[in-house]
Amino acid sequence: MSEPADIIAALRNCNRLLISVHKNPDGDALGSQLALMLALEKSNKTVVAQNIDPVPEIYRFLPASSRIKTGSTVEGRYDAILVLDADPPRTGLFDGNYPADTRINIDHHITNPAEWPLTWLAPSASATGEMVYELIQRLGIPMDREIALCLYTAIFTDTGSFRYSNTTPKSMRIAADLIEAGADPWLVTENVYESFAYRRIKLLGNVLAGVERTEDGRIAWVVVTEELFRRFGASSEDTENFINFVRSTKGVEVAILFRQTAALQYKISLRSKGRVDLSGLAQSLGGGGHKNAAGSTVDGTLDEVKERVIGAVNNAVEAQLGSASLDGRRS
Amino acid sequence: MSEPADIIAALRNCNRLLISVHKNPDGDALGSQLALMLALEKSNKTVVAQNIDPVPEIYRFLPASSRIKTGSTVEGRYDAILVLDADPPRTGLFDGNYPADTRINIDHHITNPAEWPLTWLAPSASATGEMVYELIQRLGIPMDREIALCLYTAIFTDTGSFRYSNTTPKSMRIAADLIEAGADPWLVTENVYESFAYRRIKLLGNVLAGVERTEDGRIAWVVVTEELFRRFGASSEDTENFINFVRSTKGVEVAILFRQTAALQYKISLRSKGRVDLSGLAQSLGGGGHKNAAGSTVDGTLDEVKERVIGAVNNAVEAQLGSASLDGRRS
What is the pTM of this model? Predict the structure, then answer.
């Protein structure tokens, strides 16, 4: 594992750089990628940004986002590859053949195995964007409005607009600096949280109308079927955050979203309010995840999948929190 | 209009204080009220907090919130009355007979007419909580975890968790200080945004499933009927924020919520995304409001009320933004 000083030294010797982030890129990945690209270009580097997946519509307001290349084949060689916000294999690119001798990995996920010598891992950072902010400062590259907007979006989205427990005094102070440098909080909000497709609100309504929960109220779930997608011309992208509505219900410890991916297959997303650790559970369902968020894909009819998953979640809840006190159930 | 220095001087001479906030108190009003009560008690004042309306359930996690008295009759006399976050008549208390010679008004709403000589008005503050933070600092009262939690909640809620355009570098830096003093961002989030009644999520689903919009997509609306309230055992408190889901739809400039209050009566809420000014419109419908938020109560059948309100909103949208370009309608 490395320190930013080593990464700064390595960057000084490189002129042609490739920056990539993980599959299904989010606001932190894209904001960090674009901010670093724009900053390194200001110090006269040639920078290419490439990801396997396209930029989701809600992030296309980010400066230079149209310059991010998409596709699984990386052409040419570079002086350095930078992978941000992910363990390098999670880019879905390269297939193990990295077209550069200098490989830099910058991430705040504690699960990153830090396999590259030039890995800077800061699990205390709320977002990779916080680390990129520090890197740009230490590189002596002046902040501007475009870079500030990208970094603000990175921190804003990875803290759930400063709602989650990863929100620190440091993330707030960096955000303050970024607003001063020209980042517009409402512009980011309007694009990220106020630009949902009309089909999404109809889908959300129909999905939430079918919410169910266990007798003790500690587990609640919703189901998105292929039929619902068809009815509203919607896709999986439209279901982002649906599970958070379920989690935000009082008394709910674990929320589940069942999303149909084939006639007899469901993608499962799990969210914990923090008292139930989901990491072991996801493994037992053949998936992966962290303490508060996990997922898996399970085959079967909806009834079979629900029975299996809700049963497993219930076992985890009872093992970790004890049996339900039905008195505790509220409204 | 006054400065905090005058208010500080006045406070030094008072020992028995009453603090009140506006009807239907929100997070900023209550957080400011409780923080100032706790701080003044630390400097050995006797403080009573009283409002006309009770503390909403989501704010009962605030320290000392159970000590806020409720009711329209104020008993006894005080050395000073402090009204926070509102023009004094908006407390709904006192009926013009204020039982104290010293009257202090602290508010960030630009609409406050500042009729009391000791009025401190700071429209640039994101929240009254920001002003109370400054006041406590200038009074030399040390910050503690409980006061910090109250002030953090005040700023957090009035900026919509740092999403709205009133979010400034100063509000972010104060929030950083408050986290350092012990305010827990997730504790506030969990109580304010993650503790909705189960009936609310069912109601939300059924309401959103019925969303409609105009041909050009610039006006969208939902309806909450008495039948829906009955079906889910829900009440108007459960509909808070519903209109924001409608506003957050792409292309929507004005969102409308029709909430049935009697067989032939509907309460109308309007929200603008910022480009349509609603202040005149609310007046023409017999209600009140500001640029981005307005409301009214309209009599009639649902069809009559919808036709009248949507027609008026459409006139306002066309007058202010021009005729619709149907090309502009997205998804």
Answer: 0.87
